[in-house]
What does this fold into?
Amino acid sequence: MKTHQERVFRIPVEELRTMLENQYGVNLSEVEPYLEKDSIVFAIGLDEARATSERCSAAPPKMTPLGKKSRRSRRKRNRVKTRGWKVVGKITNSKGLVANVYEPLVEALRESQVARSEQKKLVRQIIAGNGNNPTDESVEYFLSNTREYLDQIARGSVSNG
It folds into this structure.
């Protein structure tokens, strides 16, 4: 029968703290370390590190990241500003989403018997006129919702709310 032997290595946190303070010239006395995957992390703000290093030494320290917590980057949501536009109705569009329909778009497309490409240009101009930089998807979204709204009015099956 084999016996299992193991070696245990323990390094006190204070020893690591002292080693890092000496090597980088920062004060880690009030920093609480934590485990992240296979690393021990002492996280301090760069402003704190610079202020501490200026007091400790004349030469700036070499700051290397010791392992930041990984975060997912936040995606910028594309929002179209509709401030000042009157909502003339709400519809459930063909994709099943509840959508507001706005007066400037309805007025521009109501009498419009032009090609869809011209309607897109009109919608783009109206959205851009309110301080937006519309994407093709947002132009298509507002155009199709307004067209669906106008079609529902023509059929008499629109519900406002």
